[in-house]
Amino acid sequence: MAIDLSVLISGASTMSSATMSPMAMYKKLQKLAEENSGASEIEQAKEKADAATREMDNAAIRVRNRQYKIQNVQVQDDAFFYKNRAATATTADELINDDRFLRVLATANGFEDTYNFDRQRLRDILTSDLSDPNSVARTGTVKELELAQKYNFAATGDQYDTDGNLVTITADGKLVNDGSGGTPLPASLAKLRGLVTDINGNATIEVRPDDPDIDGDLMLTAGPSGSDIINYTRSQTKTLLREKAAPDKSSVSGAYEFEGTEFQKFRERKDIQKDIDYFKENIGSLKSVDELFESQNHRLLKFILSAYDLESEAQYPGKIRKILESDLTDVDSLANRYKDPRFQQMTKDLNFNFMGLTKLQLGSTIQDLTTRYERISYEKHLDEQAPGVRAAIEFGRRIKDVTQTLQLLGDNVLREVVTVANNIPKEIAYQGVESQVTAVERKVDLNSLKGDQNEIEKMVMRYLTFKDTGFTSANSKSYLTDLFG
Fold first, then answer.
1. pTM of the model
2. Residues 100, 222: one domain?
């Protein structure tokens, strides 16, 4: 560690050789050097802690943005589906009984709660007879009546143009007006398609201005179908979050840059790709939950556990199966009895209790497990180069899920950060559980900590400071005496 000589010189200039012995001067200089060195080390440690905190926040933002991008793709897919479904349906019934179509329609019109909690009422509103004063729409709220009027799905009969010809729809959803198409367009779909109708409810023909004697096209408006797509896309599309300003690359490591070139290089490592390819190629061939836990499929089970940073548990397949098949609504289930939230998250994500292998073999689940595996593997790789950083980031992620001090002590990462940051000696592990809980609670108020992001960041900073400097408090011995004596 470099020593600031200007501090030593300025300090030495106040000393008189006539009043201070050489030995006293030496000790004074030595003390100044130690104070300056210690301050410099703490400042550097603080900078590292600030960088780690910033990277932790940015890593969370990157994860959220990846989720947003996936969600936005789904929104566009929903909009495309809705538009094509509206264009090709032959009856109103097939639309209102299509849950995906109904979900987009409900969301676009502000009826999400009705869709989620009383779907049948939503269908009854949409199919209400507007001429019946006792219909659901007429006896409901103004908003419900307006929804029924907007679509008029209860309209009956076929749509005719002004010349008396049937408006028909071809197999690809194209509207024609000469009666030569295959299927007459029901009146119940006229408003959804955006057709302009005359006073009798018949579809009208647009006259060609260049030749009034030639029939034009069926008149189309924006219609509910078009406005629904716009409203749904606008309300459901997520705006990507902005990351905090990147630090100077010359002073701070680019750890946890999951979108960066270093991570991409790591992902392309042959050993990583080999594990991922094996998992993707073989997980779909399992026929039952039993097969996953057979010895020949141990590699698949190990991959799943590694994705949740539980690789060391692969040697206990019986226990893992009981955990994965736990009912999380039962407080006494095995997954809930284990205090480590990783077990509960894995059980929730895979849902063996209700779905068996179904959810595990979904493409979205396989991709999620692959992403988790890459990320955990990369973090372990980085931790080999900068010990402590991964634990600090994991602490920030997981501490908010902890509800008891005992749960904190049972998690190796949380225990490591809390004990090091608060200078609690590792020797407390030799004491009983109650003594360990007492020792931690003397130093840490768990409820205050988990509810305050600033306190979490301070804890992380202290941990990295002491981890980096190898600091050991001078009062550790007296603390141990108090604890064990």
1. 0.41
2. yes
